[in-house]
Write a structure and sequence with these properties.
Strand order of the largest sheet: 3-2-1-4-5-6-7
Shape: globular
Helix content: 25-40%
CATH architecture: 3-Layer(aba) Sandwich
Oligomer: single chain
Structural class: alpha/beta
Low-confidence stretches: 203-208
Radius of gyration: 17 Å
Number of domains: 1
């Protein structure tokens, strides 16, 4: 069984898409063991609680230091035996200690064809505004591994969509979001079925 932890800051539509496929059996041998948000009013927490999934509000503002925050976040993930961490609209940089503990076991989805239109400040409608302003004829979504730099880790899966001359950031966002809801569950399915190998945790060698 693949234990999934999900981090998000907003409504969590990608989380819902993944959860729906788990419930329907299209993602086998996987379950969401916890959901964490830096926003106490995030819809992603409401969705988790509606499905009796442990849901946590964990924000840097609650802690006296970065290390205290990171330590609590790590404790939540490890106490729920998370195997794979999914970022679903999570607006914060992942602390280094979490990256080290879950190296190549944290993935994110981004609403553009990385490496284009990624990095700090490239989120939500800002991405689609930049794509349209540059005169691009196509955009899309990317699932990638997470490292120390925003939207920088190795690409796992991408899917493209056309950009039309009549597009607004909002219409392009809708088209890209539909693709996000296709490829993120697909990547989770590949991890759950072993098509994508899951890297062992860094301390695994201590327990052969």
């Amino acid at each position: 069984m693949l234990n999934l932890a999900v981090l998000g800051s907003g409504r969590g539509s990608n989380f819902q898409a993944i959860l729906d496929e788990i419930i329907d059996g299209r993602i086998p041998d996987a379950r969401v063991v916890c959901v964490i948000s830096n926003n106490s009013e995030a819809g992603i927490l409401t969705t988790a609680r509606a499905h009796t999934i442990p849901a946590f509000h964990c924000s840097l503002k609650q802690f006296p230091s970065d290390s205290a925050f990171a330590g609590t976040l790590l404790q939540i993930l490890q106490s729920h035996n998370a195997d794979l961490v999914l970022l679903a609209g999570y607006m914060k940089l992942i602390p280094e200690s979490i990256l080290n503990a879950f190296r190549q076991r944290i993935v994110n989805i981004h609403p553009a064809l990385l490496p284009k239109y990624g990095g700090r400040g490239m989120y939500g409608l800002h991405v689609h505004e930049a794509v349209i302003a540059a005169g691009e004829t196509e955009s899309g979504a990317t699932v990638h591994y997470v490292d120390e730099v925003y939207d920088h880790g190795r690409v796992i899966l991408q899917k493209r969509v056309p950009v039309y001359p009549t597009d607004t950031p909002e219409t392009l966002a809708q088209r890209v979001l539909k693709v996000e809801h296709e490829i993120y569950p697909e990547v989770v399915r590949r991890f759950a079925t072993g098509q994508i190998p899951l890297k062992k945790p860094f301390h695994a060698s201590a327990h052969p």
